[in-house]
């Protein structure tokens, strides 16, 4: 993606145009909140980077750095989530909704808007309660506790405004008709619980119905999780409502998760300053003439960029944006390439610094560095399997069709070296344990912006500002899922669901062996990776299954690697994988056309995953070499 494309990627049609002056105010509020999120990300990078410099080079640790960084992260999550909501960029699954007749689809879309509005309003009210409750309290370093509470209140307020504006954009009859229906259903449930509580559905039933129902009607994943836990809190009068926002805010307040927005920003900066395009074009010119050359380039390019951005969809956008035009120029099948591109994202799920690896390590209490190292050999193994199939089914193309620019080979090599140094820097930091993943990611951002900007001179101040805004929105939508899942997990814990699942799975493992347990967990993760999207599946099942695996003698690094790959397989597999739909959107293809040629690649990945389950050495050999297992 070039610099102009980086700007265009976040431009959207005029929002809230039907509201007149009110719409103008909403657009201004959206601009303010998204730039505030971008500013929070920029300051956070500066704080963490300065902290690293002071700690490792000046041997003078900055005591307040982590507290400030965490407060800025809460601001980034809620402001970024609000800006993503204002532009309708939150991820959801609409496959189930499209199975209904068209008239019903319109109603379900509107109902999903009211669900989002209900969650936003509930967060606003309860976060204000949290703010009042924390008045006068201070952090361990003496800072006012409001630095964590105020961003939640302001972000929730913006989400409430945008969600109500989105809901009332529908035709008046549809908007008020569905709202009346929602109010009636809520009144019936409230009366049922008040006057016939013995026969009323339990909070657990309402939790599950709320979550499954939200998914079916297409509510964004984060808001489906938050809505389910909201229903649970309302149905259980013994739980203070302030705990609702407290749990959501706590889910966003973790220093280790800062690596996610930092690596996303580093990847987008590489695309904007031309580092990505030079590296991929060099691969095209070097490998394009080989049998299956374009396929091989797709695999190698995705692997390379997975070592920078951490976001698989960002990798697909970077690689697909250059590969797909070359495919069409050389008259190759774009559906074949799009299917392979989606499968390379599965292959690269365990290449550090993958966002889902960070999330799994966090929720399952596993070493981030150890998991990063454990994922390298499995990724290389899956890449070799994909390459074998790609060469077998591939053909040769005219290299002249693969030139994307007039740059000389020398220029491409020099430009690619700048990108490769960044990849080596990240890899060295991870493998040697020189710093935490968050600190390494801050270095990656500074390198991509400063070194990449000076080397190629394609970054302007305006482009850089928009990069921070875009990264904040992307990271906010990802991390808001983590935050919302915290409340959902809290409700499950109260209902002792983890204990029930643990007992059942332990019994299964003792009866059939640890290998069968891991295979069963793999199937579970594939299914829920498709249905829930990647992060929620890991957040819910990671902390449930990892301790069981450890009790059965399964190494957590091996288990985590297998779970992340299985989740990716579900995320990018037809017919409901959200990642596949996103890939087709980016490549200008259709799922029904991509699925048939994609099946051979999925089959080899599934075979490879089974081999990885059966032979833990793939995951554990490298960590053993570095003393991380």
SSE inventory with pairings:
Elements: H1 3-8, H2 21-57, H3 65-86, H4 102-133, H5 146-167, H6 172-195, H7 203-217, H8 221-235, H9 242-252, H10 259-272, H11 275-287, H12 293-306, H13 312-329, H14 334-347, H15 355-363, H16 368-374, H17 376-393, H18 409-432, H19 437-456, H20 461-494, H21 497-512, H22 514-532, H23 534-551, H24 556-571, H25 578-587, H26 591-614, H27 617-625
Helix pairs in contact: 2-3, 2-5, 2-19, 2-20, 3-5, 3-20, 4-5, 4-6, 4-8, 4-9, 7-8, 8-20, 9-20, 10-19, 10-20, 11-12, 11-13, 11-18, 12-13, 12-14, 12-17, 13-14, 13-25, 14-17, 14-24, 14-25, 14-26, 15-23, 16-27, 17-26, 17-27, 18-19, 20-23, 21-22, 21-23, 22-23, 22-24, 23-24, 24-26
Report on this structure.
This protein folds into 2 domains: 3-257, no CATH class; 258-625, no CATH class. The chain is mainly α and 629 residues long. Residues 1-13 have low confidence and may be disordered. Helix content is 76%, strand content 0%. The protein has helices spanning 3-8, 21-57, 65-86, 102-133, 146-167, 172-195, 203-217, 221-235, 242-252, 259-272, 275-287, 293-306, 312-329, 334-347, 355-363, 368-374, 376-393, 409-432, 437-456, 461-494, 497-512, 514-532, 534-551, 556-571, 578-587, 591-614, 617-625. Helix 3 packs parallel to helix 5 (146-167), helix 11 runs antiparallel to helix 12 and helix 21 (497-512) packs across helix 23. The radius of gyration is 24 Å and the shape is globular. It contains 27 helices and no strands.
